[in-house]
Amino acid sequence: MPSTLSERDLKVIWHPYTRQKDMPPALPLVRGEGALLFDENGKAYIDATSSWWVNIHGHAHPYIAESIYRQALQLEHVIFAGYTHEPAVRLAERLLPLLPGSPGRIFYSDNGSTAVEVSLKMAIQYWWNRGVRRRRLLAFRHSYHGDTFGAMSVSERGVFTVAFQDYLFEVAFIDTPTAVNLDALQDQIRAHGPETAAFIYEPLLQGAGGMRMYEAAHLDVLLETCRSEGILCIADEVMTGFGRTGKLFASEYTEHKPDIVCLSKGITGGTMALGVTACSDAVYQAFVDDDKLKTLFHGHSFTANPITCAAALASLDLLEDPACADRRQRIHRQHLAFAERLRAIPLATNVRVLGTVLAFDVATGAGYLDNVGPLIARYSIERGIMLRPQGSNVYVLPPYCITEEQLEAIYGCIEGALGELKTR
Ligand SMILES: *Cc1c(COP(=O)(O)O)cnc(C)c1O
Known about the structure:
Bound molecules: pyridoxal-5'-phosphate
Shape: globular
Radius of gyration: 22 Å
CATH superfamily of the largest domain: Type I PLP-dependent aspartate aminotransferase-like (Major domain)
Order of helices and strands: HEEEHHHEHEHEHEEEHEEEHHHEEHEEH
Structural class: alpha/beta
Number of strands: 16
Low-confidence stretches: none
Mean pLDDT: 96
Strand order of the largest sheet: 4-12-11-10-7-5-6
CATH class of the largest domain: Alpha Beta
Number of helices: 13
Distance between the termini: 39 Å
Strand content: 15-25%
Largest sheet: 7 strands, mixed
């Protein structure tokens, strides 16, 4: 009989994004507090990646926990077609004025992938409802928009999607903008402008594609081009939202605003799964019609779950506290200083910082399946630091509540790991 939690897990669980052959035992965690997680023996780990980019205020935050508890005692769930409740309405009322481009409506779903699916269906049906034939979708190379089929289709085709290639719909991919290719990209957009339904992009920061950063001013030019061609712009702010890039939303860095915004990850402070797709009134109006076929026939059983909405409202309270912005500023300054230290290390290349995100590539030449990632992850976990490099791309993306000392411990660990790699 298996006895430890890791052994029991090995018998019954299939973990996400985890190779099953020779799967190493998963680390059991029993408790969290601030930026720390604790295992069964009380050993502490610093969560350097915000538990897959979702946690912003720290683990087991009592304020969010209490909101969840109170809501669970009052109304835990109700069908959201034809019925409504305070947490869903209140959350929409609070989100709409905060969001870039002052959208008019909020559509709820369950996670980042569904928020993206909904955005694509909104955009496609927007044109269909208006009787306009625009079928082409445009996305960036190296993008990641989720794991459902629509989201996979608009994502970079690579190791994540190769088995499903034949089932993904056609999407036109363009490079992310640079000073050099900007004119060419505009030409590419204009060449098929009248056939293009929508352009989906991760503003400024492509997360799962390897924490790639690009300039807001360049994105702005592409958004302007899309606008002049009548192409709907969909900002996938699933990872960049809620303060991650410095501003509340990365789309605040650009003058031209999206028609549709996708949110998830940080929205509940990393406590519960929630997806939001916000759209402009112009998009929404295309669905207001006598013709029943112009309805958006989409919805999930747990749409606008009241407990989840209560968690999001509590997280917003914490996010709007000026102290939270100060913490993000402090992380940013520490990141900038560490970036200078990294630039002195030859193995660390392409060192970059955006808001609370620091990333660099280990100079090995290989991609996502490269083994330096697992080596650095193993080195750091032994030292109580939870890092999860993407191949040779190493990044630090901490909860905003992380202390100066905890962040310094992460940096020290990375320097130590790079020192080990050098002598390998
Ligand atoms: C994580 C992510 C998604 C998918 O969100 P899930 O909640 O994992 O389905 C979509 N878009 C971006 C930009 C993401 O980082």
